């Protein structure tokens, strides 16, 4: 049945579609890189779901109760009880966003030459492992590498590969194991409870601490309730409690399922580890009862962590993204299947067969989306992951050329997404006229944020 938004609108934020001439000027001025276009010149912004959520009236009300004392402000205790109630994890520190929790954890546990397994590391997780001299190893199941293959839990970790790794001499070099819920780098795909249990058991058998990258924990739990046999009658809250009862702790960016615009935390059962981490926290974020956040922001996260378990909200959220993906499939636009929790990923290589990877087909589609509809998506392909082979000097392309359309939480209505679908349908009808791009300027690292292009 059609699923309407389970809220009504109390405050509106105007958005405006720039004229075609204005859009063209913005594209040229930005060197065809949408990261360099001002947000006010975007009509529908699907760049990310991170920090872009609309807060509820309850969260906004909480902001007024911000206690800005340096130490021991009341909002810290609200945050603490939310972490304990929702996740069942006893010790924690707040941080201003997820990557700081990763920094604290990995700088404490990872030393050069060590290996951290995961289903798929998110970019910041990988960078934090690598900047401590470690190797971030992805052990997601093979199905995740095939965009068209249907699988209910495409974020699952390959337990045979994990066992083989743990049973090998490399075990000595594994300080902890991670699992990302949902698997953002693999298309926002969920991990099943059975898989989490299996992974946790292997970690216990081999004495490896098990930590979860919890950014989209509620969306993952909703998928478990919908898709996993025997889970359909449990509450999402109970599923979340079970997931985290299996782990030693987690890193969390509250900019996703914390329904907040800023915030995060590190939580653990290991009191000594949290005490060690607090020393570094004081150095890089602030006193342990505020961790780089204002008291009012702590309150928004504390409320958001409880609110996100609302099953009417989750039903709408996941159904909205799924319907968006289905609308694209119905119009012959190829996407990664099944649709993930927070975004739709278009397979640009399949959609634009006339543009080879050397001419960045996914970036060409990102440009077309803005040019034709004022829509901002993000390239996840050879602009982001391509590089030059250091030995041969030949270019190496990404395995997939994707455009990610991430859906912010509670921000856009179904009709906004219908508009994006219509824009893509119109692009489909003249896709053979789209042009590839070449890079004219680029930074040595993370080039996708700042590089400039020329159209061919
Ligand atoms: C899976 C995952 N882990 C970690 C992070 C990092 O969180 P933050 O942007 O708050 O530093 C993100 C952000 O997008 C993410 O998606």
Q: Can you walk me through this structure?
A:
There is one protein chain. The protein has 16 helices and 16 strands. It has helices spanning 20-29, 57-63, 74-87, 98-109, 123-130, 159-167, 193-205, 217-227, 236-245, 271-284, 295-307, 311-330, 348-351, 361-373, 382-385, 414-429; strands at residues 44-45, 91-95, 115-118, 135-138, 177-180, 210-213, 249-253, 264-268, 343-347, 375-376, 378-380, 387-388, 395-396, 402-406, 437-441, 452-455. The protein has a 5-stranded mixed β-sheet, sandwiched between helices. The model has no long low-confidence stretch (mean pLDDT 96). The protein is α/β, with parallel strands linked by helices and 456 residues long. It binds pyridoxal-5'-phosphate. The site of pyridoxal-5'-phosphate (PLP) has 14 residues, from α4 and α5.
Morphology call:
globular
Strand order of the largest sheet: 2-8-7-6-5
Q: Which small-molecule species are bound to the chains here? A: pyridoxal-5'-phosphate
Structural class: alpha/beta
Q: Total number of β-strand segments?
A: 16
